[in-house]
Write a structure and sequence with these properties.
2 domains, two-stranded antiparallel ribbon, binds guanosine-5'-triphosphate, GTP Cyclohydrolase I, Chain A, domain 1, binds zinc ion, alpha+beta, disordered N terminus, 214 residues, five-stranded mixed β-sheet, GTP Cyclohydrolase I, domain 2, 8 helices
Amino acid sequence: MDVRDDEDYDEASQTEGPGRVSELSYGAIDKPRIEAAVREFLLGIGEDPDRPGLAGTPDRVARACEEIFGGTQEDPGRYLRKQFHEPGNEEMVVVRDIPFSSMCEHHLLPFIGKASVCYIPRDGRITGLSKIARCVTGYAHRPQLQERLTSQIADAMVRELDPLGVLVGIQAEHTCMTIRGVRAPGAQTVTSAVRGVFKRDIKTRGEALRLLGL
Ligand SMILES: Nc1nc2c(ncn2[C@@H]2O[C@H](COP(=O)(O)OP(=O)(O)OP(=O)(O)O)[C@@H](O)[C@H]2O)c(=O)[nH]1
Ligand SMILES: [Zn+2]
């Protein structure tokens, strides 16, 4: 069985329900199982899964799931291990407005937005800029909560780079709040995760928030 290797994986929140552990292979996409479930789902909403328009749908959804949830067994923090050394550089780095889409774990509906990551390297220990965006995308490829996504990115930065500080901000629109339920289109959820010097130093945090446009 594949076991997720990221340290901050919140096992406690994943243990609800009967017989889960024996049935689960974290991060493995079992396409036949998804196809069977989609067929059941179509029956559940009163559709005929064999009508021509829907005949290919279970396969399509299974392939879409590979794109949306694929790679969840890998640690997205691994991207940050591509590092460079600029001795003495302890200046703020900001990668702003990284677009992402993720799936809300409560409704399995997308939430879509932008993530911004700001950090201050410790003695010039920096990572490739694209690796920060890859890390965001990696954590987004799971059933998620926006708050958890935000913290996981910040914690991966701390773990892999040991920076002086990290601030992650995410702004997203949750379709579970727009196309159903409360139906509040346009409502934006903003979350932040603050680590290290940004936690202690209000002036530095203010500068970071300004650069992040938050
Ligand atoms: N904190 C947080 N809540 C989320 C996120 N995504 C969805 N939710 C919320 O999860 C909650 C689930 O509430 P429930 O009462 O169990 O579900 P529900 O009956 O479908 O709730 P409504 O959406 O209010 O109709 C809702 O308030 C959602 O808005 C997220 O990323 N973070
Ligand atoms: Zn939701």
